[in-house]
Target: Glutamine--fructose-6-phosphate aminotransferase [isomerizing]
Amino acid sequence: MCGIIGIIGKDQVADRLVDGLRRMEYRGYDSAGVCTVKDGALVRRRAEGKLANLVKELAAHPAPGTVGIAHTRWATHGAPTTSNAHPHATGEVALVHNGIIENFRPLREALIARGRRFESETDTEVVAHLISEQVEAGKSPQEAVEAVLPQLRGAFALAIAFRQHPDLLIGARLGSPLVVGYGEGETYLGSDALALAPLTQRIAYLEEGDWVVITRDGVRIFDRENKEVERDVTTSGVTAAAVEKGPYRHFMQKEIFEQPTVVAQTLSSYIRPLEQTVALPQMDFDLDGIDRITIVACGTSFYAGMVAKYWFETFARVPVDIDVASEFRYRDPVLQPGGLALFISQSGETADTLAALRHCKAQGQTIAVVVNVPTSSMAREADLLLPTHAGPEIGVASTKAFTCQLAVLAALAAHLALRKGKLSAAEEREIVRHLIEAPAALNAALAHDEEIAAMAHLVAPARDVLYLGRGPDYPLALEGALKLKEISYIHAEGYASGEMKHGPIALIDEAVPVIVLAPSGPLFEKTVSNMQEVMARGGKIVLISDAEGLAEAGEGSMATIEMPRVHPLIAPLVYAVPVQLLAYHVAVAKGTDVDQPRNLAKSVTVE
Ligand code: M6R
Model:
């Protein structure tokens, strides 16, 4: 949601804080701000909009000092203006916050009644005032934070600087991630290891309720009972280079093109190519007793879960319920004792999904997590951890995380089917053979990049676009529509192609491009019939199929995109590529901000 960073350093920190924000800008880009401590004063610089505006502000009004905090914001409470930008400060205290203080209204009213004056509409500012009150009453920074944290409800990661204490920063986390970085005579706080990548790779992940006092050469961590605790210091392995665009114009483009590599990388942890068998990373994990699966996720990860529902039911004959995480808890779902709850997330920090995970855990479900960030909250709370190895995904539109999730889910479905006695060894070998083909097929799909770029002008002027697919390719139609919406701002909807005739076909006219996903296979004929119903009403079709499919049904389409001929199992991975590329090139043609589309953030850590 928002990104926060703090440095207690040997040298000037403002530029390094901004550099850290640059690596976290994918978390939010409504405003940015920095506050340093210098000669007994808090030096605060803020700007609305992208980080570039803060850079200009700092060029005009530098923020000297060797201690500081900084923030990049995705607005929740209050418009994205400079006065609502973090850090929020009083005369004594400045702080940055990621999360939501849910009880900020009563706290704010009580503070106003005690004579405090607010300068923003944010929930965060109450925390600055509460801590400031304590400091003004003579408490030390530690005592002040210890007194205030129990008053806060909701989710927070905080980094706090004190006017009179240029020798320390305090951090705290509950529900939002926060890490401590260990440098040489310097110490850091950050929302993630990525933010600190060029500064240090020695990272401690704070646990729920932890708070921490950092100085230049020391770190003291306390748990929610204020007992001093130790947290492991690990080597993050995230290098600064992992978050560079390289020769690509956008991170999204780079990440689309990384898919053959990262899918192969991910599959190598889930299959044994020589033996042609499936092998989960936690092979000893007992799935034999699982009779029902509940899948919960958001956005693109949810669509990966929808594809997996087809696989779990087809191969393992295990019934699957699937929900978007934001709805799941509130419908009070009936969970079968002994069931498996499966959560899918790129970030592992999405608040809705994390809350659903904790709900299922409290109900005694076994928790399986397919996640790309191995140090995330979801990864740490899983019984069965199923990592994807997509590497850092920076573009707000998820691409490579999706295909890696599909690779893991296909392997999991095959493993479950084997355990349930629904798959023979020969069938297992066949599935593995198809999975092994996926990276090459992804490469072949990427070879159509230029052609897709050339047809972007057919879609770019549209006000509405429809995507159609059947079976496991129906979720891909939803994913295609989501990709187009989020980066090109064109209204798009995905439908199960057979559902068109029940209403949406009324929308069809020559101004509405209809993207049809129709790989050869058992559902091809049916999809093509639905496509013809659209054509008969003047609909302009973009047909995505293989050579056989295009030869059979391509005539009369406005455009066609040829995919390699693949087994239906891996079709959802391969057909993800043209829908990603189409959305990407349409967005480029429209001149939108591909990697940082309006109103969005990469990691949504509020409900
Ligand atoms: O990190 P997660 O996979 O949990 O994130 C879920 C969604 O927020 C995410 O997939 C979102 O829909 C993307 N912007 C889609 O491209």
Observations:
- DSSP finds 18 helices and 27 strands in the chain.
- The chain has a mean pLDDT of 93.
- The domain at 3-242 is CATH 3.60.20.10 (Glutamine Phosphoribosylpyrophosphate, subunit 1, domain 1).
